[in-house]
Amino acid sequence: MTKEEVRAVSVAKLQLEPHHILVDVGAGTGSVGIEAAGYLSKGRVYGIEVNPDGIDIIKKNIEKFQLENYKLIDGLAPENIPDVKYHRMFVGGSKGNLDIIVDHFMKHSAEDGVIVINAIVLETLSRAVDTLKVNGFADIEVVSMTVARNRKVGTMNMMMGENPIYIITAKRGE
């Protein structure tokens, strides 16, 4: 699951408007898409996930939060992305298909489309930036984020760092 602080920044980088359509690729447990659905009163989220455990968690959260604007798709991107014009794409996992996922984004997203890619390893960061450059994105923003949480050590609190994450944002037309 995307940690709360990383999820907040990732959703903010999507620059969502109430009517937007969001495609959540590699939805995992659905945390980003489910939070985003709350901002999309006139829009929709298409969450794409292949892992059965993740799918079960997403289904439970759709029910828990009574989301009528979240459509879960059991499958892989880009082949299982519905044939709709969408405004935003979040990539939490690509199963090695990042190049063709970005290609799909270029062909099917709105002219002012925004893509946000989260990466936990340097190789994915590098590949994402290279792929975005090849596809003509000039203004690519990378945010490196490290979150630390307190842990009790006797009567004291010690901060324990989580693994860093890279949040890559690019907008079409820039």
**Low-pLDDT sequence parts:** none
What class do helices, strands and sheet pairing give? alpha/beta
CATH fold assignment: Rossmann fold
List SSEs in N-to-C order.
Answer: HEHEHEEHEHEEEE
Number of strands: 9
Task: Provide mean pLDDT, rounded.
Answer: 95
**Rg over C-alpha atoms, rounded to the nearest angstrom:** 16 Å
Beta content: 25-35%
| Biggest sheet descriptor | 7 strands, mixed
**What general form does the structure show?**
globular
Whole-number total of structural domains: 1
Name the strands of the widest sheet in spatial order. Answer: 3-2-1-4-5-9-6
CATH arch. level architecture:
3-Layer(aba) Sandwich
Rounded to the nearest angstrom, the distance between the terminal CA atoms is: 31 Å
The CATH class assignment is: Alpha Beta
Q: Which range best describes the helical content: under 10%, 10-25%, 25-40%, 40-55%, 55-70% or over 70%?
A: 25-40%
Classified in CATH, the superfamily is Vaccinia Virus protein VP39
If helices are DSSP runs of H or I spanning 4 or more residues, what is the number of helices?
5
